[in-house]
Structures are given as C-alpha cells and as structure tokens.
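Subject: Sanity check before I submit

Could someone independently write out the structure tokens for this chain? I want to compare against mine line by line before I put it in a report. The sequence has 445 residues.
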Amino acid sequence: MSDAIFAPGFVERPYWWEAAPPPPPASAALPDEVEALIVGGGIAGLSAAIELGRNGVKALVIDREAIGWGASSRNGGALSGAGSLGKVRSDLAEAFGKEYVSELMEEGERAFEDFESFVAREGLDCDYVRSGRFVGAHAPKALETLKRRIELINSAGTEEAFFVPRERVAEEVATDRFFGGMMLRRAGSLHPAKYVRALAGAAARHGATLAGGVEMRGYARDAGGGFVVETSRGRIRARRLMIATNGYTGGAAPWFRRRLIPVASYMIATEEIGEERVRKALPTLRVYGDTKKVLYYFRPSPDHKRILFGGRASFVNADTRASGATLHRFLVDLIPDLADVRITHSWKGNVAFAFDMMPHLGEHEGVHYAMACNGSGVVTMTHLGTAVAASMLGGANKPSAFARLAFPTKPLYTGHPWFLPFVGLSYQLRDRLDGWRVAPRKDAA
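---
Independent answer below. Compare away.
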C-alpha cells in the first residue's frame, strides 16, 4: 500500500465530523424516573423523542457513546423512499404478497414526503437537497433486475423511477463500467452529522433530555407494568421503553441482538478537487449506487468540492487506513480520471441487516423498537422512529405496515456474525461470475 494516496493531514475519522462533531458525554445527574426512556441516540431514537415531545411526553435518550456517534453521523447521507425496499429484496411480491407489498411501497414513498416535511417543519439545518439517485447496472443481467425494481417502485402510482440505457450513463457518471442504470427522482442527499445534530437540538426543544456516555446494562419489567433499567449511571424507572441501538445493539438486549446482523460499511473522502472536476466525474451531482453484491455508493460533498465514496471494503473488522486504500482503488477503477486524487478521511460505521432484509418496528414484551435499516437508514429510521413514538402514545391513526412483519432470527445465532467473511467471499464470487473485475492498484512511487 503506497502512502501516495493519502493527502497531508489524512485522518481516520468521518469527514462529516469536521463540521458537526458528536457532543461530549453528559455529566448532569440523570432522573430516577421518566415517562419514556429511549436507548440509542441516533436517528430513530431522536426522531421518536421529537414525536413524543410534540405530544407532551418528555423522553430521556441515552447512548453508550456520544449522541449521534454511530452510523447516524457516519453514513453516506443518501436517501430515498420505497426505492430502498426494491434494492434489498427483489422478491418482495413473492415473499409477502402483492397487496401487502403495495402497502409497504406506498408507506415507503410517503415516508420520503414526510421526511421532507419534517425537515422543513423542524427547521433542520442539514444541507438537504432533492438530487435524485442513479443506480448503475454492473452487468448485463442486472438490467432486468433494475427494470423489475422500476416497475415495483412505480407501482405506487408515482412514476418516480425510469431506466437509463448504456449510451446515456455518461450523462450521470464518468465511467464505462455500467451497462445501464436506474434513475430515481424521489431521492436526495444531506449532511448526516448535521442532520443528527439538528435532530438532537429539536428533541431538546421538545423537552427531551439527551445523555451520551450512558450504557444500558439490563432491564426488567416492574410490578406496575413499566421497566427498571440498569445503566452505567444508576437505575432508572421508565413507564415506556424503546430500544433503537441498531448496528450497535449489545448483550443487554439479547432478543434484539439475535435478530440483527451488524455489518461494517466503509467510506472515504477525497481531497478538495473543485466543483468543476467533481461535475466532470458526476455531472448531475446526484447520489449514486450500483447493483453489485459488494456494492459501491458515492456522491459529491455538500459543497461539491470533494467526492465521497463508500462500500464493503472488507467483511472483517479492517482498520480504516487499509480500507481507505481499498476504496480508493475501487473509486479509481470506476472513474479512472480520479487516479491522481488523494484521500483526506477514511472511516467506518455499523449498519444493521435483518435476516429478511426488511426494516422492523414493533413491540416485544412491552419494549418498543425500531431497527434494521439494511443500509438505507436516513429516511427509514426517521420514519420508523416517528411511527414507534405514535405507537407508544397509542394514538396512531393507521399503524405502520412494517409493524406486521415478523422479526426473524436463525437457530443458534447470538448476534455475532461469524459467517460474514464467507458471505463476503460468496458475494465477490458472484460479482466476478457476473463479469465484474477491479484492476489492481498501481502504487505511486
């Protein structure tokens, strides 16, 4: 690995934290009793706290790390509605039935519209732009998959997705590696760390108490129907309890941990190359992805001066310097014109997948939850957190269709995904069999 790809001042932390670093842990004393306790200070937990507060219920939000420290402030900042469902499950209709899938798709599309309204209503400063999303077909066989996804997305009656033939791919991204693609109009981008900071501010305005650096160590029902929660800062009694720890769910919540597959996702930020060169590589300034099993996702920075690139650089716990070099090689292989561009930041964060590759919310033994964004978390977790809060309040006019999904696990699975390296190898083999090859990186002197 050559050091030439690393710009002076290279750091192994999220680029997003330059503008919006996580806050320091709380030091104030915590209450002994609360109306609602939310474990997990990311997008889902904070969105739930906002909805509870708007309806007169002041929540306490705790997190083992700083508020927003996890994937909520580390992700790529790309967002879409029901399009994310078609991404993870190409067999939705076969698995769940056409009528139910229509409900899921309609709710997914509505979630995107609700998200935009939510950002405006709460005045969230997060660099949100409705940019559209392009998904490149990595192989000829992927074109049919994309066409089915387009049909599924448009079945909600919105005509928001359309096919891009190979001869027009260059209008979207400066590569000859894709055989066509899909464009989603209902998609956009934001600054994830600014978004989670703005959510935290809105939650506090609506009466929530936010406490980072507080670990939940266990919980149990009490005689009054509420919960006794043991934390690193003492015991808290809560009438209502929500767990929203997603890819960072620990042993204190074993039922939930057994249903989540934490997967590290990696990202890099290039040095500033100027808007003109960014537009040359990404002419439409959208958010981008592809159809590979070992997928890429990428976008311009909010100021259009850098390119941010992410993907599954490793299926083991790799250090972010090594993963940064791998992602740089992937980026240059996709867009060769960027061969001389160095990177300034490399980082990773855990996303959580469910075994059925679907988002989940609901209630287990009185504990409410919102989990499993499956790699598409900004809109999904905002929506699920808000929906869980409505359920906690008991006033939801129409319960979420996602609440009817069983939350599956596998025999003997305890939350440690020992099988991921084997999954990674199978994914790489699938991509190679489809014809995808990545040229070896030529180290600079």
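---
OP: Matches mine. For the report I'm noting this point. The longest helix spans residues 98-122.
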